[in-house]
Amino acid sequence: MNYPPKAISVLILVQCLFIGMGYALSRKMVNVMEKVESPLLLLNALPNSMEFVLKTGLWAWMIPLLWAACISLRSESHQGIPMAQSTDAKITVGLTLLVVCVWSYGAMQAVDAAFGYNGPLTVVNFTN
């Protein structure tokens, strides 16, 4: 079964948006942390996922852009309409889920690191 390119292009657009928003939010939270803490402490305090999002940064946009180019080269024309193969659509859905999970988790870790949120199950002992 072939899929219309519109569905795949929407998923690739979602990937690009999550990469951009995750990077921008992580970068902004680093700026917030720099105002509160010293830069030397900041380098050691970054969570791994946040560090990954910041290091890959805007280069990660190459993932969906190169995948879109690959799909457009592999697409077949049916009655004058280009159609993507079913394996390409499945890989695009999986890639979208991976990008959404990784960059959302990195952005959440950035907010947690900047504002000191430890999660809903954190036990705080107040002793007098």
How large, in whole angstroms, is the Cα Rg? 20 Å
Which residue ranges are poorly predicted, with pLDDT under 50 across at least 5 consecutive positions?
Answer: none
Count of separate DSSP helical elements: 5
Portion of residues within helices: over 70%
Number of strand elements: 2
Q: What is the approximate shape?
A: elongated
Tell me, rounded to a whole number, the average pLDDT: 78
Q: Strand order, main sheet: write it out.
A: 1-2
Keywords: Membrane, Transmembrane, Transmembrane helix
Transmembrane segments: 50-70, 91-111
Give a brief outline of the structure.
The chain has five helices and two strands, in the order ααααββα. The chain has helices at 5-36, 39-45, 48-56, 62-74, 86-115; strands at 76-78, 81-83. Strand 1 and strand 2 (81-83) form a beta hairpin.
Description of the molecule:
Keywords: Membrane, Transmembrane, Transmembrane helix. The chain crosses the membrane at residues 50-70, 91-111. The chain has 128 residues and is mainly alpha-helical. The chain is built from five helices and two strands. It has a two-stranded antiparallel ribbon. β1 and β2 (81-83) form a beta hairpin. α1 (5-36) runs antiparallel to α4 and α1 packs parallel to α5 (86-115). The protein is elongated and about 70 Å long. The model has no long low-confidence stretch (mean pLDDT 78).
